[in-house]
Description:
The structure holds two protein chains of two kinds. By secondary structure, chain A is mostly beta strands. Chain A is 0% helix and 42% strand. Chain A is built from no helices and nine strands. In chain A, strands 1, 3, 4, 7, 8 and 9 form a six-stranded mixed sheet that branches. In chain A, strand 7 and strand 8 form a beta hairpin. The termini of chain A are far apart. By secondary structure, chain B is mainly beta. In chain B, the strands form two sheets. In chain B, strands 2, 4, 5, 6, 9, 10 and 11 form a seven-stranded mixed sheet that branches. In chain B, strand 4 and strand 5 (45-51) form a beta hairpin. Chain B is globular, with a radius of gyration of 13 Å. The termini of chain B are far apart. The interface between A and B is medium-sized, with 24 and 23 residues.
Amino acid sequence: QSALTQPPSVSGSPGQSVTISCTGTSSDVGRYNRVSWYQQPPGTAPKLMIYEVSNRPSGVPDRFSGSKSGNTASLTISGLQAEDEADYFCSSYTSSSTYVFGSGTKVTV
Amino acid sequence: QVQLVESGGGLVKPGESLRLSCAASGFTFSDYYMTWIRQAPGKGLEWVSYISSSGSSIYYADSVKGRFTISRDSAENSLYLQMNSLRAEDTAIYYCARLIRPGRYFDYWGQGTLVTVSS
């Protein structure tokens, strides 16, 4: 199972919006609405930010939003803040009953 | 509150074995699927394995199949990963995480334990 494809890095100024793409196949991202996104600041464990494509867990700011079209999911951070600087990973359940992660995207503010 | 605490990491030589543990608290451990996820130094996340709440359903990534064994002990509220025939490419931080429901997402993560495989 190959990793989902994400851009290595994106950057934006405070207050701007950035979007991270996550491209898979019809066997994972395109097959199920089971894409999740995780934020990982340096030296820390990943934290769930979006689940099932577009849902935010309690406590996650509404600046974070998710969507999906075909085999590509996206995470958008609106009103970028310094504290959003981190690595972001997407993940999807697959038709083999396994999981696959994205290659990761470093967000620089 | 939900807590997951990994232990058992360390430095081993290629071909050796290691057993990781994950102590769970703050929730009914026997109700949840659990998983291991790893991250090589400076690299991305890689899903390793998951086990059903009863232990009867288990899946592995191809990269560890036949070498790693996941297990759980509900009496001890603990998750385990037995790693045999370790290779340099198994060097990583190993995280345990809770699966909210089968086929869904990882809602809580531990802080990880570092495994280094080197001669």
